[in-house]
Amino acid sequence: MASSGYLQAVMLLLAVQLLCFRPSDAEQETGTVIPAESRPCVDCHAFEFMQRALQDLKKTAFNLDARTETLVLRAERRALCDCMPTNTLH
């Protein structure tokens, strides 16, 4: 009798799994499924790409910062030159 209850419990769990975890329709999928064994390479390439993009962003930010500093210094020098006679600057 105990094995009959066990079998019924297993069958009930199987039925619940089939109802809850239905396979998705093929129409809903947009793209191809990447096999599990190739995912680490894809993830690694994506990480490398993002790392290069971050380095490029850092370089761009540094260049913009340096350019902004140059422009501010130039504007300050112009403002200083405009309010002071040129012979006092030398």
From TrEMBL:
Which InterPro entries is this protein grouped with? NICOL
**Main location group:** secreted
GO molecular function terms attached to this record: RNA binding
Q: Which domain of life is it from?
A: Eukaryota
Protein's cellular compartments: Secreted
Q: Tell me the leader sequence span.
A: 1-26
Q: Which GO terms describe its cellular component?
A: extracellular region
The entry's keywords = RNA-binding, Secreted, Signal
- What family does this belong to? Belongs to the NICOL family.
Q: What is this protein called?
A: NELL2-interacting cell ontogeny regulator 1
